[in-house]
Specification:
mainly alpha
Length: about 260
């Protein structure tokens, strides 16, 4: 290889290396700028949604108007990360409808009053729906858990959960203690009885049973890996035997002291 060819080879390689570094730097810069822009946009959507909610509240009444007040307070208490999450959810919704949030945030629809009002309604109601479902998440989880349990309460591996929930229901006086003959029944008969009592308790007070279900499920998850000797059988508690007083002390040689 001649010196001219070598020089051209090194020059080409250096130019490629410089180009790659430049592209990498530009990519990082765009990513950082994009993050800043997204944060800025999320703050705009937070302020915009608060303003729209306040304006819409005047046309609402009853519990929905009260919900809007709580919604506005919730918006004001969002952290930066939560604001970004809200922005992403609204942006995803808008994108699915072929919309761009910037049309509203940058006042591009000021000359199309009807379209602007319609999109404001849509995004406001979607934001309100996101907040409301978030408020109901615990109740939704309980409903799904109970619904899943009701589909197959006697499935394999469910006995321990059933037993713990049954005990919790007894403690809350939502069901009676099991009859004595149940202790002599088979495991299948005991589980059938427990499931029947749980179902009746759900019909009486679904909300309380749901809270107990959530608590027992959480405890059960925390105790995973630990096993009881007989977790599924509702064993009666044995009375504590009182120790009888000794009739004397034993000597070191093993003979008992004689009482006079």
């Amino acid at each position: 290889m001649t010196s001219f060819v070598k020089a051209d080879f090194y020059k080409t390689g250096f130019n490629r290396f410089s180009t790659n570094i430049s592209d990498l730097y530009q990519g990082i810069q765009e990513w950082v700028m994009g993050k800043d822009s997204e944060k800025e946009q999320s703050q705009k959507i937070q302020a915009w949604l608060t303003a729209v909610a306040s304006a819409k509240k005047e046309h609402l009444s009853g519990s929905l108007a009260d919900d809007v007040d709580t919604f506005i307070s919730w918006l004001g208490g969002l952290s930066s990360e939560e604001t970004l999450q809200l922005y992403d959810q609204l942006d995803t919704f808008a994108d699915a409808q072929g919309l761009d949030l910037s049309w509203l945030l940058e006042d591009e629809l000021d000359n199309d009053i009807e379209l602007k009002a319609g999109l404001e309604d849509a995004l406001f109601l979607h934001g309100l729906a996101l907040w409301r479902t978030g408020q109901l998440q615990d109740e939704i989880n309980i409903f799904v858990a109970i619904r899943t349990w009701q589909a197959d309460p006697l499935k394999k591996g469910q006995a321990d959960l059933n037993q713990k929930l049954f005990r919790a229901l007894i403690n809350q006086e939502l069901t009676a203690s099991p009859p004595p003959e149940l202790f002599l029944a088979s495991e299948e008969e005991r589980q059938t009885y427990i499931v029947k009592e749980i179902k009746q308790a759900i019909e009486k007070d679904k909300q309380t049973v749901g809270q107990l279900f959530k608590r027992v499920s959480t405890e059960d998850a925390g105790e995973s890996g630990q096993t009881d000797e007989n977790p599924t059988s509702p064993e009666p508690e044995e009375p504590v035997k009182e120790s009888k007083p000794q009739q004397g002390n034993k000597k070191s040689g093993g003979d008992e002291d004689k009482t006079t």
